[in-house]
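Interim report, section 4.2 (structural modelling).
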Amino acid sequence: MWSLIAVTALVLGPRCAFAQQVGATPAVDSGDTAWMLASAGLVLLMTPGLAFFYGGLVRRKNVLSILMQCFTAMCVVTLQWILCGYSLAFGPDVRGIIGNLQWAFLHGVGGAPNPDYAATVPHSAFMAFQLKFAIITPALIIGAYAERFRFAAFCLFSVLWTTLVYDPVAHWVWGVGGFVREMGALDFAGGTVVHINAGMAALAAALVLGRRCGAASPPHSLPLAILGAGMLWFGWFGFNAGSALGANALAANAFVTTHVATAAAGITWAACDWLYHGRPTTLGMITGAVAGLVAVTPACGFVSAMDAIWIGLGASLACFCAVTFAKAKFGYDDSLDAFGVHGVGGIWGALATGLWAQKAVNPAGADGLFGGNPGLLLVQFKAVVITAAFAFAASWVLLRLVDAVVGLRVSEHEERVGLDLTQHREAAYTILE
Amino acid sequence: MKYIVAIIQPDRLDAVLEELTRREVHLVTVSNVLGRGRQKGIAAVSRSHKEAGSLLRKVKLEIAVNDGYVQPTVEAIMAGARSGQIGDGKILVLDLLECIRIRTGETGSPAIG
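Predicted structure of the assembly:
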């Protein structure tokens, strides 16, 4: 009898807790919550956007493999996140390194706000918003290993990487008690966690996998890539302005700086193309725009719109040099420039935050070098080095591990026939009806 | 004058063009085609329903050459397109009756090169 009561109490326990949370929700602000939920939707749209951006750039025999991998990230990372990922990244701190598993299975993550992260929106809305970041980060790495990665390897690598690389780094930078956050490093929307992290993993992947077979081919559909870039730009407003975690002036500042930096970066890359290759290209312009989005990500809530112009301009110059000169010189096959744009652009953005951040924009931030505080630049530099070194080393080890378990790379024959047919038994386009 | 038609694997096109250039055969017309030989292709699957039909993507090269260039052209295609696996394709050599360059009105051998 007593055991029956105990079991009943166990079953009812969480529901009672939930009821209490619903009772304690007056702190929830409807405007903030609406913006948080809309932003979460916007950030999710970036992953299909990325799929089209990358998908247009590969050969026609591989476009479905890219779309499939991006969509798989949406499915698989979502499940990982609610089972344990969110708790590892944002759960109660363990020595500044990782969250514990107290919030696994979303235990205790409900309608009541968590004042440590977002005091005016339901905890579940914050969790859902952060989930979209966890989805797109492993998807970004696809750009480095496109056209030659086995699908089984993709699934295993993405789950392991999200759990063992993304979740810890997210905790260091954003989690309460995370050691990079305690250092005072500024990362408004995820330049370190998302872009440097994915960019360094991309470099490791390009080096571990080696070059693709045959000569480099032109993109099979630039209009598709431009559509994808447009979706990324649109979704990035959720990524950056949503990271204000409220519908307020800070969100508006992030919205404007994001837009301005992207515009400056897009036109700068096109100008570089014009000067260096003789013609401005659409691919150059959209690559520049993405580089600008990446670079302004850590800075958007700490800098002014005028500073954002310089951040965007610098992003395109740095990434253009990385993609045009460094890649050719060192010979790594970063298929779609995941490292060249996200790694290099992310590092530039983190350092640029140390240059142009100002307390006048965000009192919770800090002044940068141009505001008379060189210390911030040093802290930003340290955060970059720590994240980049960890992401590169851990990704390298994971890739080697997955290679030993399932094999990373398709056979040469499969690569020649194309991943769509060999990995998925589908073709993206027909020639006859 | 001969008209050489070659059906090859799509992914071998770059290698064949390279071999042709090396042998100074520059003029070539290329098209995407579907076809089938005796081999079975990789059938696509649509909503778990295996699609019927076994037409495979191939690339067709068409090259008009003077007689002295037939051998180098065939060698180039063999060198670039041969993997030793089933489905490597075929080379067909046809007699060519006439060739006219539209711009100048030249006919015969001089019009080919």
